[in-house]
Amino acid sequence: MVTSMTGYGRGESQNEQVKVFAEIKTVNHRFCEYTIRMPRQLLVLEEKVKKMASEYIRRGRVELFITVEGKSLVSKNVDIDWNLADQYVSLMDAVKGKYNLGGSISLQDILQLESVFLMEEVATVPSDLEKLLMESVKGALENLKQMRVQEGQGLASDLQSQLKKFAEIVAGVKTYAPSVVKQYKDRLTIKLSELTDGMIEDSRIVTEAAIFADKCDINEELTRLDSHVQQFSDTLKQGQPIGRKLDFLVQEMNREVNTIGSKANDSAITKEVVEMKSLLEKLKEQVQNIE
């Protein structure tokens, strides 16, 4: 099964107190890379979330966003620094006495004293929040999987179509290739006959043709291309992640085509080489999207 690396999924779970939302999107990447954003009180669950995600995602850049609505995950407590308050009040009394100031110290004066009152935040994570969070993440992953598989089917169909065209060109070149030596031999015979008024030995022509045939022999490259095409087709039917293997096969096919282009001293084959390279570029582009 071909799976795309691109997709989006959303899941949610709730109880009477809170509602948890999970959104996940994936794009192409050579390896598997995670970015997870969630309330800091829930960061302790990050590894469990990654472990669950790894059951669905093998390759790609993953962005996961988790939000919680409803009951706050933080409670606030207020405390007072009595020692500091005592010092403030003592200093105020000292200033009043030294400068003979009137008035009395009020509650309002105390409330305005910096750092006397301390605000403390305490995490209040509901006991079943972990269960809700994992349920929402799983829902998002299931939706993501469905989208990635659906897109993967489209990619597989396009790859098979391009591969079929490529295989047809390879078969045509294989049929045409033997005629290249014969054409060269015929041209050589005519040319030498013109230059020597027909006084040329057949053995020399045969020797020159044999040398040319050895230099432009592309049978080995064509055979390897047939093998790569078959491997590519078989790999598309496999169940595990196949993107890297397909990428490697495209590189190998491109290398063989380049060799054919440099060895085959024939305009017709050169034209087919250009077409094969164009198809390989399309294959490479699509393979980059496969997990």
Strand order in space, largest sheet: 1-2-4-3
What gross morphology would you assign? elongated
- Residues in β-strands, percent: 15-25%
Low-confidence stretches: none
Gyration radius, rounded: 38 Å
> What is the average per-residue confidence, as pLDDT, rounded to a whole number?
84
What features would you describe in this structure?
By secondary structure, the protein is of the alpha+beta class. It contains eight helices and six strands. It has helices at residues 46-54, 82-99, 107-111, 129-196, 202-215, 219-235, 243-263, 267-287, and strands at residues 7-14, 18-27, 32-37, 60-70, 74-80, 117-123. The strands form two sheets. Strands 1-2-4-3 form a four-stranded mixed sheet. The protein has a two-stranded antiparallel ribbon with strand order 5-6. It is elongated, with a radius of gyration of 38 Å. The termini are close together.
Helix-strand blueprint:
Blueprint: E1 7-14, E2 18-27, E3 32-37, H1 46-54, E4 60-70, E5 74-80, H2 82-99, H3 107-111, E6 117-123, H4 129-196, H5 202-215, H6 219-235, H7 243-263, H8 267-287
Parallel strand pairs: 3-4
Antiparallel strand pairs: 1-2, 2-4, 5-6
